[in-house]
Structures are given as structure tokens and as C-alpha cells.
Structure to design on (872 residues):
């Protein structure tokens, strides 16, 4: 009996073995690539760059380096956030934490390099672009460090204050994503830009609250006041429906006022549609991590639709 | 003239490198030097950024604005450099908030005066736009504060170099490589700045010093990774050497080349009950007459021992010369090693040896003699004699153990392994005359530690004595491991084997009142092999018995 496996492998021959190992190796490489993309938050950088591209198309801005800058900054900020929250994330995202812990030195250097390059490239966009590039870094410091507590003031970590936590994230990203391409091109502030800012602020707010649903227990024990902790999962879902519908209302108003073209309105509505679909599953699906990912990716179809319509037209 | 695009590209690279390097340095907190380096690179980044904005700005006011605000970054650099250098090289006594504050007064003035120049013209007295190769650039006439800023910056830069030059002469090569990288990082920007001030650089009137800092950034990053700038940090060396000297177990006295006491550590002061303030600076024979008598007039033995008058403490004294790089003797170091406890244990062992060698044996013989006089058909008398013999055997083992420890501290001569094994076989035959021993012999030039006599005597005697087989048999195999310069002796018997509990206690090396071995025999073997730097393994033989494998180093044949 003991000799059976070796007999089998002889009969299938070395070619079969080689093929199998090639497939296995390819699968391993793909898995590693997927882990690196997902756990290092590289995908979030790509999403942010796509959102900047969306803004550029909607505002008809000339091609510039702002998507690169925003992508690099996003990568740097998220890498730093993952590294800072290594201890608290271990319970809720064990695989990601293990990946980050294993590669923390490389990730930090990659994050530092990304931010360094982003700042340098932003300088070519002028003082405003440079200032905007420094903004997420400053927000990150406010968001993740305990400076307020260290100062002995009664201001708690922003991360632990209800709604403010998600609003801070939403504000930083919407300002950066709308402002960066405008700063690079010295574009004037128009109502359309204001609508885009409002759209991204509300959508990012919804995004930021969605991962709080699976984190409800760990957040509650850590004393972090998120919507699901304070009002429960059902009420959270209803509130997020409300915010998403408010965003749709904003789009409708902008369209009626002529601030947005039909193509842009449709594309942005598709993004909110995706987000609503994700919110509908909140508290009703076991794949909560996938819901968070789906919310983060919800503006990508909007860009796809816009590019498709623009090219089609 | 350098093309403007090249100049701008270089400045952009400067920003990227400076920002990345600064963040990496920031990550290394609280490693000495990390925070000042991060601040230095941040200042350099700001300078580069303002230069880029100045080049791109249109109009004299906009260009002048960026020059003015650039002073915020420029002012930070020399202070950060100085404290980086002090912290990194371990001069922590100077890295205190008040010193940082004092060193920052002038830079603060520079930053404020520079940024508000438009109101007072103290930094620049005049500004004009000039056309250089078709590019409109700003030309400014330096004011008094410009030269104050330049002078102060150069002064701090120079002060910061001094601790690093100390490191360059350090004995630790890795740090020397780091220091070279750091000096490159220092020299390049200062040299660039000096050339700019002398109007020797074709850069459209733009100060390219931050580009020099890009080179610094690369040097620092190289030092960060390749030379492990913060991975192996020299900051503790100065303290560690002092700490090791003060806290070492030995007392140490340092004499200069003229025989004066120039240093002694806490332990030496305690040993010799001396107040350092009294003895430092005095001649050695005057400060420590007893020690000087031992050192300067040694007895004709290898060891110098200083005994206190009351006989409670004794010290091994050793002396070594201190030489400088040229090989010249510049002093002596005298060390005192407290051997009082060692000598006390030695005396106790001698007493125990006498007790077991003579007193127990004599008393046992008396018991045996009296037992023979008891007339009860031998029933009680035989039991008394049997127990008396057990006591004698135990005393013999204890005596061997004492012998083992005694030999450990005395000079151990190498002996021929063959003769050791043959003595062991003779002991085994004494203990059990019917035992069969298979032994093919060992080349007579294989020598091992003489202490192993006790080990193999005990091992072979145990193998024979406790063998309950009607046909007791011992096999000895010897294998010389030339690669390791060691020899392996395997002793196999067909006895009852060794109890697992007994082996577990031996492997753990410690005993408790509840878990202990049955006697001394196996412990003697493991202690002895351990003392000579070998190892011993016990295994079960098939079908019964024990296989004991002893690995011991081969010693050179005595001359």
C-alpha cells in the first residue's frame, strides 16, 4: 500500500507533474497578487484614482497628473492606517493583519515613498495642489493619533466620535478628489464642482459606515461610537438608505439646474445604485467584508458608464 | 547654463527623496537622531518646494513671496543638523529642551525676519527681475540678516560635524561607513551653498543648495538601509563602555604610564575600601600598598593572590598593559577578581574528602569487625555486614564525586584513553568477576582529559555490578571522529536497563525532594562528561540493557 502513490506519479509522467506544478505556481502567484492588492489597500488607491478621473471627465478638465497623486496619497494614508491599527484590526481582519504584520517594514517604506513621490508631483500642480496633498496626511494624523488625549483636552480621538469619524474621512477624500484635478488645472470653482463634492462626500460617508456593521462588537468594546453601535444595524441600514437617496436627490437637482449633463447624471446615479444595492444587504448577509469591498468599488461602474457613454457619443 | 527643466526636475526629486527619507526617519522614533533627521529633511523639502514655486511664479511680488517664506525651512536645517549629530553620536547631555530652545532663537528670528522681509528689508535690501537666457528670474541684494543667517547656519553645520568626526575615528567600522555617508550628506549641500554664494554656479540665480540636500537625502537613505543607520546605532557606546567598567564583577584600577592611579571602578573601591577622591591621582604604591606589593613583587607562582589581613577575603590579581594605536604602552590596568567563595568551597571539599576517605571507611570496617563477632548463624550479622558494605560503597561514590570536582579546579593532565578504559574494565571485573568485556583497544596516542578516569570507572563498574543477567556482558566500541577532533565511546551492556524516571531526572539536571535519582553513579558520569566539554546519551539496548554513548574531545598528547 505504501508504494501506491509513487506508482501513480510514475504512470502520469513528468510532463503531467510539471503542468500541475506550473498551474499551482500560477495560482500561488495570483493569490499573492490578490492578497497584495487587497491587503495593502492598493485597490483603494486605484479606486481613488478612478474617482479623480471621473471628476476630470465630468468637469471636462484637461489631462493631468492628479489621479496619480491622489492614488499615491491614498495608498500612503491607508498603509499608515493599517499599520497604526495593527493591534485593533487583528480580531476583525485576521488575514489582512497577518499580511500587514509580515510586510510592515516594506509597506511602511512603500507608503513613505508613495507619499514622497505624490508630494513631489503635486508641486508641479502648484501651491494649491501641494497643499491639498498635505491635507490627507494632516487628516490622517488627526484621525489616528492620540494627540488630543495627550494634550489632556476633552476632545477625544476623532475616530471615536459618532458620525464625526465617517464625516472626517468623507470630507478629506471629497475635498482631495474634487480639488486635486481642479488645482492642477487652475479650474474655477463651479456649481458642478460643488455638486461633485456633495456627491462624493455623501457617498464616501455611506462607504465609511458600512464596514462599521461587521465591526460593531469590537467597536463597542473599544468604546468607538459608530452608527451601528449607537442605533443598531437596522436603523443604520435605514439611515444609509436615507443618505443615498439624498445623494440621488442632489443629482436630480443638479441635472434639473443644468449643472450636470445627462451622461454624467446617469453615470453618477449608477454609482449610487450600486451603493444602494450594497446597503440593502447590510445585516442580512454573512459576507460582510465583501459588502465593504463592494461599497468601496461602487464608483468604479460610474466611471465605466461615463467612459462608455462618452466614447459612444 | 543648466537647462531650467533639469534644475526643476532635480528639485522635484529633492522633494520626493526628502519627504520619503523624512517619513522613514520618523518611523524610527525614538531611536537617537531620528526626529532631528526627519525635521531636517522636512526643512529641506520646504526649501525645495518654495524654490520651485518661485521659479514658476510670475511677477516680482509673487517671486519675492516664495523667497521670503522659504526661510521658514532654511532656518530649521542647521538646528536639526546639529541635534541630529549630537543625538546620533550619543552626546545626549547636550540634547535637552533648553539647549534646543537656545539654539533655535537665531533661526526663529531668521524665519520671522525672512518671512516678513517686505515690511523691513532686513533680509534683502532690493529685488529686481532679470532676464537670464530668456528666463525671467528674481535677483535680490542680501541685507544684514542674510549674512547673519548664513554665518549662523555655517557655524551650526560645523559644530554638528565635530561629533561625527569623532565617530569616523571610532573603532567600529560599520559606524565609520555611516559617518562617511553622513559627512557626504553634510559637505555636499554646504559646498553647493558656498559655490552659490561665490556666484560660481550657472543656475539662473537660483540657490541650488536644496539639490545638494537631495544628495544628502540619498546619503541618509543609504545610511538608513545599507549601513543600517538606526539599526546599529553608536549612541549607547560611550555610555556602555563606562557602564561595563563601572558594573563589572571585577575590581579595576587604571594606572597611567607614570604609575599614578587615574581611574578605578566601584567594585575596586568596595574591595579595597577606598574612597576614589582620596586615591585618584596618587602613586599606586602609596594608594594601594597591598595590591602594589602583589603586583610589583610577584611570588614565583602563576597566580597573584591578595589576601586580606583578617583572612575573610581573597582576590586573584591580574595586570595588563594599555597600549595606544602605535603600540606604545600608555598605562596599566589592574583587575581584582574576588575568589573568597571559591577558596572557601575548596577548603570544605578538602574536609569532606578526608571524612569520606578515612572516617567513614574506618567506621565501616569497625562495624564489619563487630558484625563477625555476633554469633547467630550469620542471619543478622550478614544483614549488618551487607548494609555496612553499602555505606562504604556510597562513601566511595561520594569520594569520587569530590575527586571529580577537585580535579575540575586543579590542573587536569591528559591521559591515554586506552589506559583509562583498561582501568575501568579492571574495576568492572573487581565488582563482577564473571563479566565478559569485549574491547578491541584504542590506539595509544589517543589522549583525553584525565578526569574521565572517574567517569569510565564508574560507568563500567555500574554496567557490571548492576547486571542481573546470568551471563553478564559489556561491549566497548570506540570511534575516532577526526572531523571534530573528538572520540566516541559506546558502552553497551545486557543488564536490566536504566529506569526512565532516573534518566528524566538526569536530563533535567535538577532534583527535588519528590523527584530524584536513586544514587550518585549516573550523576557522576554526566557531571564528569560535562566538565570536560563532552556529552553523554543513554539509550535502551535490544533486547535488554543500556547503551551509553560518550562524546569527548581529544586532548593533545602531553609533551
Amino acid at each position: 500500500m505504501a508504494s501506491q502513490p509513487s506508482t501513480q506519479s510514475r504512470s502520469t509522467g513528468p510532463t503531467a507533474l510539471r503542468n500541475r506544478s506550473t498551474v499551482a505556481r500560477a495560482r500561488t502567484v495570483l493569490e499573492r497578487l490578490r492578497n497584495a492588492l487587497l491587503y495593502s489597500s492598493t485597490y483603494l488607491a486605484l479606486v481613488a484614482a478612478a474617482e479623480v478621473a471621473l471628476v476630470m471627465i465630468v468637469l471636462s478638465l484637461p489631462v493631468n497628473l492628479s489621479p496619480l497623486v491622489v492614488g499615491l496619497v491614498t495608498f500612503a494614508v491607508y498603509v499608515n492606517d493599517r499599520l497604526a491599527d495593527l493591534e485593533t484590526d487583528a480580531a476583525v481582519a485576521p488575514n489582512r493583519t497577518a499580511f500587514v504584520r509580515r510586510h510592515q517594514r516594506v509597506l511602511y517604506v512603500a507608503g513613505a515613498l508613495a507619499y514622497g513621490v505624490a508630494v513631489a508631483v503635486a508641486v508641479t500642480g502648484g501651491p494649491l495642489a501641494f497643499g491639498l496633498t498635505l491635507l490627507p496626511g494632516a487628516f490622517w494624523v488627526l484621525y489616528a493619533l492620540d494627540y488630543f488625549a495627550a494634550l489632556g483636552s476633552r476632545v477625544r480621538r476623532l475616530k471615536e466620535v459618532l458620525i464625526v469619524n465617517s464625516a472626517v474621512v468623507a470630507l478629506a477624500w471629497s475635498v482631495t478628489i474634487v480639488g486635486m484635478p481642479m488645482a492642477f488645472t487652475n479650474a474655477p470653482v463651479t456649481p458642478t464642482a460643488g455638486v461633485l463634492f456633495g456627491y462624493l462626500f455623501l457617498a464616501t460617508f455611506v462607504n465609511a459606515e458600512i464596514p462599521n456593521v461587521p465591526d460593531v462588537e469590537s467597536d463597542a468594546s473599544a468604546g468607538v461610537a459608530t452608527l451601528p453601535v449607537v442605533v443598531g444595524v437596522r436603523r443604520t441600514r435605514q439611515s444609509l438608505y436615507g443618505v443615498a437617496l439624498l445623494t440621488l436627490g442632489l443629482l436630480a437637482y443638479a441635472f434639473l439646474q443644468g449643472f450636470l449633463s445627462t451622461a454624467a447624471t446617469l453615470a453618477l446615479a449608477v454609482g449610487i445604485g450600486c451603493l444602494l444595492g450594497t446597503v440593502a444587504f447590510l445585516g442580512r448577509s454573512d459576507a460582510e467584508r465583501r459588502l465593504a469591498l463592494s461599497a468601496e468599488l461602487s464608483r468604479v461602474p460610474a466611471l465605466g458608464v461615463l467612459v462608455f457613454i462618452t466614447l459612444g457619443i | 547654463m543648466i537647462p531650467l527643466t533639469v534644475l526643476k526636475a532635480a528639485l522635484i526629486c529633492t522633494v520626493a527623496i526628502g519627504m520619503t527619507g523624512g517619513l522613514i526617519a520618523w518611523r524610527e522614533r525614538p531611536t537617537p537622531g531620528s526626529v532631528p533627521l526627519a525635521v531636517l529633511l522636512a526643512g529641506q523639502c520646504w526649501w525645495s518646494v518654495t524654490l520651485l514655486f518661485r521659479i514658476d511664479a510670475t511677477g516680482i511680488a509673487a517671486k519675492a513671496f516664495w523667497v521670503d517664506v522659504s526661510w521658514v525651512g532654511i532656518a530649521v536645517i542647521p538646528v536639526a543638523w546639529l541635534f541630529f549629530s549630537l543625538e546620533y553620536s550619543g552626546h545626549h547631555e547636550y540634547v535637552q529642551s533648553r539647549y534646543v530652545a537656545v539654539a533655535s532663537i537665531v533661526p526663529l528670528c531668521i524665519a520671522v525676519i525672512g518671512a516678513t522681509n517686505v515690511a523691513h528689508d532686513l533680509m534683502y535690501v532690493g529685488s529686481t527681475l532679470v532676464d537670464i537666457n530668456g528666463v525671467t528670474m528674481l535677483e535680490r541684494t542680501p541685507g544684514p540678516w542674510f549674512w547673519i543667517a548664513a554665518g549662523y547656519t555655517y557655524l551650526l553645520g560645523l559644530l554638528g560635524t565635530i561629533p561625527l568626526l569623532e565617530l569616523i575615528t571610532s573603532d567600529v567600522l560599520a559606524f565609520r561607513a555611516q559617518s562617511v555617508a553622513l559627512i557626504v550628506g553634510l559637505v555636499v549641500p554646504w559646498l553647493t551653498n558656498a559655490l552659490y554664494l561665490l556666484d560660481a554656479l550657472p543656475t539662473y540665480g537660483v540657490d541650488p543648495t536644496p539639490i545638494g540636500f537631495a544628495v544628502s537625502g540619498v546619503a541618509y537613505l543609504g545610511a538608513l538601509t545599507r549601513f543600517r543607520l538606526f539599526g546599529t546605532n553608536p549612541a549607547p557606546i560611550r555610555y556602555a563602555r563606562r557602564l561595563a567598567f563601572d558594573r563589572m564583577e571585577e575590581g579595576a584600577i587604571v594606572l597611567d604610564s607614570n604609575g599614578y592611579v587615574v581611574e578605578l571602578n566601584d567594585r575596586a573601591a568596595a574591595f579595597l575600601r577606598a574612597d576614589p577622591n582620596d586615591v585618584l591621582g596618587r602613586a599606586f604604591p602609596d594608594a594601594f600598598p597591598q595590591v602594589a606589593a602583589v603586583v610589583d613583587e610577584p611570588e614565583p607562582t602563576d597566580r597573584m593572590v591578595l589576601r586580606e589581613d583578617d583572612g575573610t577575603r581573597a582576590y586573584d590579581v591580574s595586570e595588563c598593559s594599555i597600549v595606544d594605536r602605535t603600540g606604545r604602552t600608555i598605562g596599566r590596568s589592574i583587575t581584582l577578581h574576588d575568589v573568597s567563595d571559591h577558596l572557601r568551597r575548596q577548603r570544605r571539599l578538602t574536609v569532606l574528602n578526608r571524612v569520606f576517605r578515612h572516617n567513614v571507611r574506618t567506621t565501616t570496617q569497625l562495624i564489619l569487625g563487630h558484625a563477625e563477632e555476633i554469633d547467630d548463624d550469620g542471619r543478622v550479622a550478614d544483614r549488618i555486614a551487607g548494609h555496612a558494605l553499602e555505606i562504604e560503597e556510597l562513601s566511595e561514590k561520594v569520594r569520587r564525586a569530590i575527586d571529580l570536582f577537585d580535579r575540575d579546579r586543579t590542573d587536569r593532565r591528559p591521559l591515554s584513553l586506552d589506559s583509562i578504559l583498561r582501568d575501568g574494565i579492571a574495576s568492572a571485573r573487581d565488582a563482577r568477576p564473571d563479566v565478559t568485556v569485549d574491547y578491541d583497544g584504542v590506539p595509544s596516542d589517543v589522549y583525553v582529559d584525565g578526569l574521565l578516569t572517574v567517569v569510565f570507572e564508574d560507568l563500567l563498574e555500574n554496567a557490571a555490578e548492576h547486571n542481573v543477567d546470568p551471563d553478564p556482558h559489556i561491549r566497548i566500541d570506540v570511534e575516532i571522529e577526526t572531523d571534530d577532533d573528538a572520540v566516541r565511546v559506546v558502552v553497551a551492556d545486557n543488564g536490566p536497563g536504566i529506569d526512565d524516571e532516573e534518566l528524566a531526572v538526569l536530563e533535567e539536571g535538577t532534583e527535588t525532594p519528590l523527584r530524584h535519582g536513586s544514587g550518585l553513579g549516573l550523576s557522576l558520569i554526566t557531571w564528569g562528561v560535562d566538565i570536560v566539554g563532552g556529552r553523554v546519551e543513554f539509550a535502551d539496548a535490544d533486547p535488554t540493557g543500556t547503551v551509553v554513548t560518550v562524546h569527548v574531545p581529544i586532548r593533545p598528547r602531553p609533551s
About this structure: The radius of gyration of chain B is 40 Å. The longest helix of chain B spans residues 340-373.
